[in-house]
Amino acid sequence: MKTSNWRKRVMAAGLVLLLAAAPAFDASAHGSAGLQGPDSGIPPENKEGRKAARQSVNKEKKVAVIIDDFGNGQGGTEEMLSMPIKLTVAIMPFLPTTKSDAEQAHKKGFDVLVHMPMEPKHGNPKWLGPGAITSDMTDEEVRQKVEEAIDDVPHAIGMNNHMGSKITGDERIMSIVLKVCQERGLFFVDSKTNYHSIVGKLAVNMGMPPVANHIFLDDRHTISHITGQMKAVEARAREYGNCVTIGHVGTQGQKTAAAIKSSAAEMQGRVTFVGISDLVRDIWGWHPAPILPSNNN
Question: At how many degrees (to 10) do helices 139-152 and 171-183 cross?
Fold first, then answer.
């Protein structure tokens, strides 16, 4: 496929997905009013049309579970890495277990993301960790930070933001971040820590997939809440065909892992758990071709 056609395809798909996903809140909050059945708008005599519509409705419902904050041996790390469903593991660079977590995740068949520390609008700067991108950096400094982070996380196929509510609204900085990811054959997942993020718009303009988080699992640290969020994940996947959701390792990581494991077992047969790269390929046909040298192949 020629580059121009590929760009048009991604931009069109991106705009459709952005409209479907916005605003990014739980699908369980939506009512079913206004949803049409599989035969809506299809003439009775068009049997093939009805068949195709039913196949679309019955298409496999896919869920990509991203777990953030690996790299520092935090609570829930072992439980997440032994999860019986496919996960996507977002690993912070330059930390004690960055490389070992990446290797274990890769051997398990999980997708690996660079969990890129980025300046927030509010919050403790100490939570950022090493190698963070801040708003006072020059273009060259931002590029260098992104390059170094990618090189520090083995097997990375994408990137998402750690904190970053200030940076994901900064067009200058995010343009550089996305450009480096594009050059290295990585996509970027917007964690949606900023409701007014411009990442999706920039990604579409650059011909990259505008991947974004739909639901945070553990914004409250109780098993009952996380279980409820998993129900919302299933509801969104059943309504839209897919859902991207984010949880965390950390002080409450074992609770998150336990809730995901029990919920996933109950959801089996109704949704399919996939890596984020599977979803990106399915929706946008994303087959990157790295330009710059990388040790992550």
Answer: 40
182-201: b (≥16 Cβ within 10 Å) or e? bbbbbbbbbbbbbeebbbbe
For residue 117, give the nearest of 39, 37, 51, 173 by alpha carbon. 173
Q: Can you give the pLDDT at residue 291?
A: 57
Separation CA 106–CA 92 (nearest Å): 15
Alpha-carbon torsion (11, 89, 180, 138), positive or negative:
positive
Q: For the whole prediction, is pTM greater than 0.70?
A: yes
Is the pLDDT reported for residue 28 higher than 80?
Answer: no
Determine how many CB atoms are found less than 10 A away from the CB of residue 217. Answer: 25
Please name the helix (run of DSSP H) or strand (run of DSSP E) that holds residue 112, with its range, or none: strand 111-118
Look at 59-73, 118-132, 133-147 and tell me which has the smallest mean pLDDT. 118-132
Alpha helices in the chain (DSSP H): 3-21, 47-57, 77-81, 98-108, 139-152, 171-183, 199-205, 223-240, 253-267, 276-284
Q: At what angle do helices 253-267 and 223-240 cross, to 10 degrees?
A: 40
The per-residue pLDDT for range 159-176, each reduced to its tens digit, is 999 998 999 999 999 999
Residue 91 structure tokens: 């690993």
Element (H, E) at 189: strand 187-190
Q: Beta partners for 68? A: 248
Which whole-number Å values give the CA distances from 104 to 19, 87, 89, 148, 257, in the listed order?
36, 12, 10, 21, 17
pLDDT bracket for residue 287 (50, 70, 90)? confident
% of the chain surpassing 90 pLDDT: 72
